[in-house]
Amino acid sequence: MSKQFRTLQSKRTDLKSVPFSPFCLGTNIAFYMVNQHNHAPTVFQSKGTTTVTLQDDALVLTFGPIDLPAGHSGDLASSLPIHTFKAPKDMTVIGFRSRIFTKDGKELPGQYLHHILLQNLEEKSLSCPGEPTYFAGAGIEITDAKFPPGYGVPIKKDSTLVSIVAFYHKVPPTKDVLATFTMDLAPEGASVKPIKAYTVGVNVVCYSQFSKRPSNESDEGRELKPGIVQVDSKPLKFTVDACVKYAYPHGHDGLLMIALDDKTTNQTLLRSVPDVENGGNLRGFRAQQVYSSTKGFPVNTKDEYEMTMVYHLNRQETLDLHGMGNYLLYVAPGPCE
Predict the structure, then answer these.
(1) In angstroms, what CA-CA distances link 133 with 103, 124, 274, 328?
(2) Domains and CATH numbers, the chain
(3) Distance CA 185, CA 89 (A)
(4) Distances in Å between the alpha carbon of 144 and those of 102, 106, 136, 281?
(5) What gap in Å lies between CA 139 and CA 293, rounded to an integer?
(6) Which of 24, 49, 150, 319 sits a CA distance of 20 to 30 A from 302?
(7) Helix (H) or strand (E) holding 31
(8) Buried b (16+ CB within 10 A) or exposed e, 192-204
(9) What percentage of the chain exceeds 70 in pLDDT?
(10) Residue 48 pLDDT grade (very low, low, confident, very high; cuts 50, 70, 90)
(11) How many other CB atoms are there within 10 angstroms of residue 225's CB atom?
């Protein structure tokens, strides 16, 4: 069953929206929009907007309303104009959650949402050198994230933040669709240790590396063949010595498992099995399948790691589906305490 839609009522803050074309130059994010793929640009619907609301200890982004299906534009595959805004205050993100629904309050399945991405242009990515950090996000799994007690992602006041949303372009015609992405914030004055995001995946996760995607991979993910168990793996090297405190899993319909292995020590570090419907559609990840620990586990720059995803599509599947197997890791620099 889908999760209950929570109505958020608040007074909107006076944050400035700066929508821009992902094909324009002149911003430090433009490099990640203008890559080697030459997607046909989307003509954005005039009513499709993004608003930002600060309510007590939550920062809420609301996307839409928009009529679906809608196309994608640029390498970040945005369905709405990319939204740039300033952090309204010094804040620490301690979790996040997303919802998708119609204007009249009817909740929609997560399959309507392809992805939401949040970037901080003031912070450099740990996993993708030279790129801004991608510090939060969600996909069709719509799994609530809650970091271990006492840990959070700090964001300085007036930091330039960017939000990108993409709705799945193969959904049935649906009018006035909205999505929300809520970042839960630590209360002012709370003692919180900093963690940073680190993205890993079987599919290419760094925008600057999109030109190196294999021929069977696109913005949608890896091609999937109905009727077979498909196992895809990819070697991984970490760029930092750090302690993983939280791991947010991301996958698509047909996913059976995501895993992260340390091949040097011959250990499986993460193994996430999704909650699915009888036909294989992804419902999300239950709490016991989402790694969260104040103790954490270490990763380093010396060992050889590997990401693996396992998929199975029904033989009668007619849709052209693609798979992804990602973790958005949250790490504390240095050794585990």
Answers:
(1) 32, 5, 26, 11
(2) 30-185 (2.60.120), 195-333 (2.60.120.230)
(3) 11
(4) 20, 19, 11, 18
(5) 23
(6) 150
(7) helix 30-33
(8) beebbbbbbbbbb
(9) 84
(10) confident
(11) 12
